[in-house]
Every structure is written in C-alpha cells, then in structure tokens.
Specification:
Helix content is 37%, strand content 13%. It is α+β, with helices and mostly antiparallel strands. Helix 2 crosses helix 3. It has a 4-stranded antiparallel beta sheet with strand order 1-2-3-4, with helices on one face. The chain has 3 helices and 4 strands.
Length: 167
C-alpha cells in the first residue's frame, strides 16, 4: 500500500508542475502579446465635420494565366452545371469555344479501365512556357476546382496518362 500512495504523490506533484509550467507560459505569452499591440494610425480631419479620406493603393490587376483563370473557371462551372459534366470532351469543346487553344489542352479519361465513370476528371490548358490552367471535377472533388499551376518538367500540365484530343 505504501508504494501505491507514493506513486499518487509523485503523480500529483507532476500534475502541479505541468499546470504551473503551463500557467507561466500563458502569462509570458500574454505579456508579450500586450507589448506588440499594433499601432493604430490617428486621423485628424481638417474640419470637425469632415470625414477622413482613406487612400487605398490599387491592387495590381491580374495578368497572363491569372487573368485567364476567371474565364477558365467560368467555363468549367458552366459545363459542370450541365448534363455533360462527366465528359472530358465537353470541357475541351467549351474551352475551345471560349477562345482557348485546343492544341495546348490535355484531358484525363472520363471512364475507368473497367468502364465506370471516373471519380475525378482533370483538364488543362498550357498557358505559356511555365504555367498551366488546370481544372478538376467529379464526384470525389465536389465542386469544380480550378487553379494556375506550374508546368511539369516534361512540359505537360497533367501527371499520368491523358486521352488524345483528336476530334
């Protein structure tokens, strides 16, 4: 019995040490946090009823693949909302109609090797020497996903096998 009570005492001491250490850490972090409070700029209007004017620097307008991504995403969403949502060709044809170059596109198979609908379908447009517009749709994806991604070392946009776009 004596051995059991000394274990309980040691466990109690360890718990107190852990709680004390945690409390010291919280106190130290709280003290540091209050020392680094962000400074708020003061605005003094020139006229008591004047509203202070806040100037915001314009953000850089997207260019290149980033600018094309909006159109790519819109086309992807439109096809996803149609009855052709599970057909790779539908995405390629819609992207071509929107002005994307068909000869720079890739698409994965929309059927598995045993004939089932693909759980995920990917398609892409090589935008320049370094970037790709990539889309992914399918039951495993949920909502369509589109992104600008770097081209692969071999120059392709998609990893693995793709189907020929020969129509």
């Amino acid at each position: 019995m004596r051995h059991r009570s000394s274990v309980s005492v040691r466990r109690g001491a360890q718990s107190c040490w852990l709680l004390g250490g945690a409390g010291a850490l919280v106190l130290a972090l709280t003290a540091c946090g209050s020392m680094t409070a962000p400074a708020t700029p003061s605005v003094t209007p020139s006229h008591p009823s004047a509203t202070p004017e806040i100037s915001v620097a314009p953000s850089a307008a997207p260019t290149g693949a980033d600018a094309a991504l909006a159109s790519f995403a819109e086309v992807t969403a439109r096809v996803w909302a149609s009855d052709s949502r599970a057909q790779g060709r539908a995405y390629i044809d819609a992207l071509e109609q929107a002005g994307f170059a068909k000869d720079s596109m890739q698409v994965t198979a929309d059927r598995s090797t045993v004939g089932n609908a693909a759980e995920s379908l990917q398609f892409s447009v090589a935008w320049d020497d370094t970037q790709c517009l990539v889309g992914q749709v399918g039951p495993s994806t949920g909502e369509p996903v589109t992104a600008v991604l770097p081209r692969l070392a071999d120059g392709a946009c998609l990893v693995g096998g793709t189907q020929p776009i020969d129509w």
